[in-house]
Amino acid sequence: MACAETSLEGSRLLIEEVPVVVYCERCEARRPLESLQSFSCPECGTPVSRIEQGRELELVALEIEQ
Q1: Reduced to 3 states, what is the DSSP secondary structure of residue 22?
Q2: What are residue 19's DSSP bridge partners?
Q3: Order of all β-strands in the sheet with 50-53
Q4: pLDDT of 66
Q5: Contact predicate 50/41, CB 8 Å
Q6: What are the residue ranges spanned by the domains of the chain?
Q7: Which helix (H) or strand (E) holds 50?
Q8: pLDDT tens across 5-52, in order?
């Protein structure tokens, strides 16, 4: 809808989700979050704040027709 009647009309945005992985200081380990609603270690329940993976954005391909 945002691209309607623009030079980008017909373009597609494909999103591949990456799991959020945090570092638990208590376990001294990286753990994937089970839910984004609760930032706590899924193993021991300790609140975590250090995000190791899941904030990145990577552009895989861009094709332009002229």
Answers
A1: strand
A2: none
A3: 29-32, 21-24, 50-53
A4: 67
A5: no
A6: 21-53
A7: strand 50-53
A8: 888 788 877 788 889 999 999 999 999 998 888 889 999 999 999 999
- Amino acid at site 47: P
> What pLDDT shows up at residue 55?
85
In the chain, the amino acid numbered 52 is: E
Q: Is the dihedral of CA 18, 37, 25, 46 positive or negative?
A: negative
In this prediction the pTM is 0.65
Cα(40)–Cα(46) distance, rounded to whole angstroms?
5
Taking a C-beta distance cutoff of 8 angstroms, is the pair 43, 29 a contact? yes
How is residue 17 written in tokens? 């989700």
In our burial notation (b when 16+ CB lie closer than 10 A, e otherwise), range 37-55 reads: eeebbeeeeeebeeeeeee
